[in-house]
Amino acid sequence: MIPNIIGEHRSQIDAVRLPPLAALRCFEAAARLESFSRAADALHLTHGAISRAVRVIEDELGVALFERRSRRVFLTDAGRKLATAAREGFALVETAVREIREEVRAPALVVSCEPTLLMRWLIPRLPDFQQRHPDVSIHLVAGGGPVTLGRGIDLAIRRNDFVRAEAVHATPLFLERTGPVCRVDKVADYFDRPDAGSLSKLRAEAVLLHSRSRRDAWETWAGLADCRTLGRRSQSFEHFYISLQAAVAGIGVAIGPWQLVRADVESGILAAPVGFIEDGTSYDLLAPAAIVEQSAQGKLRDWLLEAAI
Q1: Which helix (H) or strand (E) holds 31?
Q2: What are the tens digits of pLDDT across the range 168-186?
Q3: How far, in Å, CA of 110 to CA of 140, rounded?
Q4: C-alpha to C-alpha distance for 60 and 89, rounded to whole angstroms
Q5: Cα(first)–Cα(last) distance of the chain, in Å?
Q6: What's the pLDDT band for 165 if we cut at 50, 70, 90?
Q7: How many CB atoms lie within 10 A of CB 245?
Q8: Are 141 and 156 in contact (CB under 8 A)?
Q9: What residue ranges define each of the domains in the chain, with the CATH number in brackets?
Q10: Among 214, 246, 261, which residue's Cα sits nearest to residue 120?
Q11: Strands 270-271 and 138-142, how do they pair?
Q12: Fewest C-beta in 10 Å: which of 86, 94, 226, 279?
């Protein structure tokens, strides 16, 4: 024989049929206020609507919930039992809804980041942070140089190449290391074949890619590497990230900070024939005060430190 009830206890097959939610809301208000009229006013309904809703539940349960005497209503034993359950149930739902709304309304953490670092380093890695911390919302804005924290900007990622306010709290993320980069199939065009035990050298035919947003990139590297770059052919672009993209396109040789080109170097798109040199600067995470552990800011800081390795 096939049993009449199949499935786990209290499954949808044998679930208790509940009165309509709207009717329960009307009943709970009438029970709490001990008046159909006051319940109607509280819920912006008519007296008749409250009365009909209560009658629906009474018909459903087959028992009276109120005693009606001299235009007043009094809860029966069954009514008191249902009123207690309804009150507690609605309270639980209201608490859950309030908490969910507060979570949804939690303001996003506004993070300002230098444009090239934002596009070539931070954004490609951000899905990993979102997967680890779905409770933290991040709003990214591009910006460079001095920044005022606490006025629409919560945190900032900057290279320490300018004077900062004394009140700023800085967490070092990584040292800046730069070097010439070009497309892999252009190495022979732009660099001499190295002798045994020596590094490649820029050929006279190499086209140097400059940017107006980081004018001293080639000069700084050349001074550290003891390499002459004056008099070589060059091409200038408005932004640093465009010069790096021009290198990817094979137009010439750009100065590439390691963190900004590491993905292209590791994937074999770009080559760095002479390696990278520390230029004495670093990228830091700036905050208006010490970052609290396990806060949204703390979670982002810890992830950034891991990503920078």
Answers
A1: helix 21-33
A2: 999 999 999 999 999 999 9
A3: 6
A4: 19
A5: 66
A6: confident
A7: 18
A8: no
A9: 21-104 (1.10.10.10), 109-172+283-307 (3.40.190.10), 175-281 (3.40.190.10)
A10: 261
A11: unpaired
A12: 226
